[in-house]
Prior knowledge:
Blueprint: E1 26-28, E2 35-39, H1 49-59
Antiparallel strand pairs: 1-2
Amino acid sequence: MNEPAHEPYCATPAAPTPETAAGPPYAECVLCRKPTEYAESVKGITLCPVCEWQEAQRTACSG
């Protein structure tokens, strides 16, 4: 018998990441209010490196 191909359990595409800013003014982290690596003009949710890492840990696939 031919078995169906198994796809990865957690096959989500990577989210696009905004370009980092060349210099100030930096956007505030929406969770802790610390400066981020992103320019203030970046649309959407901006997170500092620490909160970004913690969010990635929370949403990681636990396969």
